[in-house]
Amino acid sequence: MLDTVLRCVATLVVFLVFPLVIGQTEHKVMAHMQGRLGPMYAGGFHGWAQLVADGVKFAQKEDIVPAGADRRIFQLAPAVSLLPYLFVLLAIPIGPDGFVGQAIDAGLFFVLAVMGVGVIGKLMAGWASANKFSLLGGLRTAAQLMSYELPMVLAAASVAMAAGTLSLPGIVDAWQWYWLPWQIIGAFVFFTAGLAELQRPPFDMPIADSEIIFGAYTEYTGLRFAFFLLSEYVGILVVSGLTVVLFLGGWHGPLPDQLGWLWTILKTLALSFVVIWLRVTYPRLREDQLMRFAWTVLIPLALVQLALTGIIKVAIS
């Protein structure tokens, strides 16, 4: 019982702390890359209190529910969007020798299925808001989810085929350094599809402020809006962590196995920086470009990766 409690508490601490670290990093990285002075002043040195100021701002805002909204679904949507990522973190291995919240035999299926539940929260928000812009954003979210879920699953299946297991710790144990050039296509497909499911730039058309205000989040204020933003940062942590575990060797690295957890965290934070970098670098895709990229680029690449994995496995055996 004590072991279970400690694992749950450790996962909860990661869930509450690391997304805030990623959020603070995004403030600073964007401030440097785009010359934004505002985030560099709050609190004095390097704007250390910017995240605190944002939290106080959201807490002070009035909580408004539109008169025509489905009140219960409207209020439940932020939690449905946020909490599934907590359960995914339970299954992501940080280090060897059982350094994971809960080892699951079919862990890969579990994390992919639960991540899909998080997107349902955004659909609920768009449908329940009684706002045409929110509804349009929710429908775009649904189309984007259906388009990018397939290449993501195919890329993950390639790694499972190579490792011969669906267990995430088992995949990391089976990983070899020569997988890096072999699985690089799958890594690109998985990471890109993950960004699209999170609606991160350049795949943020469902929340395009220039045409649909803020998509499914348009009618949300205060802490409920903050929960949607927090779910985005937790999603960055989850997608980066899964990419590290599946394609970059997890805790394998130059450090001893006893410090493998540190190597995993460093890789995850490096990929999180790449996510922020992409937001600053590329403009958003049009809706037709976004759909075309999934069906004509990512899915063929994922199928090529799957076929390559099958050929190499047969050749090795």
Automatic annotation (TrEMBL):
Catalytic activity, reaction form: a quinone + NADH + 5 H(+)(in) = a quinol + NAD(+) + 4 H(+)(out)
Gene Ontology annotations of biological process type: aerobic respiration
Mode of membrane association: Multi-pass membrane protein
Predominant location: membrane
Organism: Streptomyces kaniharaensis
Quaternary structure, from the entry: NDH-1 is composed of 14 different subunits. Subunits NuoA, H, J, K, L, M, N constitute the membrane sector of the complex.
Official protein name in the record: NADH-quinone oxidoreductase subunit H
Biological function: NDH-1 shuttles electrons from NADH, via FMN and iron-sulfur (Fe-S) centers, to quinones in the respiratory chain. The immediate electron acceptor for the enzyme in this species is believed to be ubiquinone. Couples the redox reaction to proton translocation (for every two electrons transferred, four hydrogen ions are translocated across the cytoplasmic membrane), and thus conserves the redox energy in a proton gradient. This subunit may bind ubiquinone.
A Gene Ontology molecular function term of the record: NADH dehydrogenase activity
Keyword Translocase part of the UniProt annotation: yes
NCBIfam families per record: PRK06076.1-2
Keyword list, A-Z: Cell membrane, Membrane, NAD, Oxidoreductase, Quinone, Translocase, Transmembrane, Transmembrane helix, Ubiquinone
Lineage: Bacteria, Bacillati, Actinomycetota, Actinomycetes, Kitasatosporales
Family: Belongs to the complex I subunit 1 family.
Signal peptide residue numbers: none
Presence of the UniProt keyword Repeat in the record: no
InterPro entries per record: NADH_UbQ_OxRdtase_su1/FPO
EC number(s) given by UniProt: 7.1.1.-
A GO CC term assigned to this protein in UniProt: plasma membrane
Transmembrane segments: 76-94, 106-129, 150-171, 177-196, 225-248, 260-281, 293-316
HAMAP family: NDH1_NuoH
